[in-house]
Every structure is written in structure tokens, then in C-alpha cells.
Amino acid sequence: MLDKYFSYKILIGLALVMGVMPLTPRPHLVEKLQLLWEGSLTRPIDVFDLFWHSWPVLLLVLKLVRDRFRARS
Fold first, then answer.
1. Residue 59: CB partners within 8 Å, gap ≥ 6?
2. Alpha-carbon distance 8 to 31, whole Å?
3. Which residues contact 45 (CB under 8 A, 6 or more apart)?
4. What is the distance between the alpha carbons of residues 36 and 19, in angstroms, rounded to a whole number?
5. Does 25 sit behind a cis peptide bond, omega within 30 degrees of 0 on the bond before it?
6. Cα(35)–Cα(59) distance, integer angstroms
7. What sign results for the dihedral spanned by CA atoms 62, 27, 14, 16?
8. In terms of Cα–Cα distance, which of 71, 58, 73 is closest to 2?
9. How confident is the model at residue 60 (pLDDT cuts 50, 70, 90)?
10. Do the beta carbons of residue 39 and residue 64 sit within 8 Å?
């Protein structure tokens, strides 16, 4: 399914857009990762924002790792 619906171009584009949106005052992904690092990611909306802004990055990493292991086999 990952290969059928998501090419590298789409995943990289989504990861870049979702990773930096919104730009002001700072990207949500950076803000939520900082909250997670500090241990203060407690509000449900913050947890949702972390998931929402990071899913394209997670899919991209999953696809890269899977393709890397396929190439070795």
C-alpha cells in the first residue's frame, strides 16, 4: 500500500509542508517535539498536533528503511 499510494516525491513534499506549517511563531512539529523533550506534552491537542504534523515524516522513514532492507535481500 505504501508503494501504491505514496511515491518519494509525495512523501518528501508532505513531510516538508507538514513539518514547517505554520511558520509563525515557529513550526508546530518543532514546538511539539520541544514539549515532548521537556516532558510537558500533556494536553490532548498537543499530542494530536505532534501526530498530525509528523505522520508524513514517519511514513517517509518507514518507506526508506523498508526499501533499504529490500535492496540488501
1. 2, 6, 11
2. 26
3. none
4. 16
5. yes
6. 22
7. negative
8. 58
9. very high
10. no
**Is the C-alpha dihedral spanning 22, 27, 28, 29 positive or negative?**
positive
User: Which pTM value belongs to this model?
Assistant: 0.78
Question: For cell 514546538, what's the residue?
Answer: 31
Render pLDDT for 6-52 as a digit per residue (tens, 0 to 9).
Answer: 899 999 999 989 888 887 788 888 888 898 999 998 999 989 988 99
Cα angle 26-15-58, degrees, rounded to a multiple of 5: 110
How far apart are the C-alpha atoms of 15 and 11, rounded to whole Å? 6
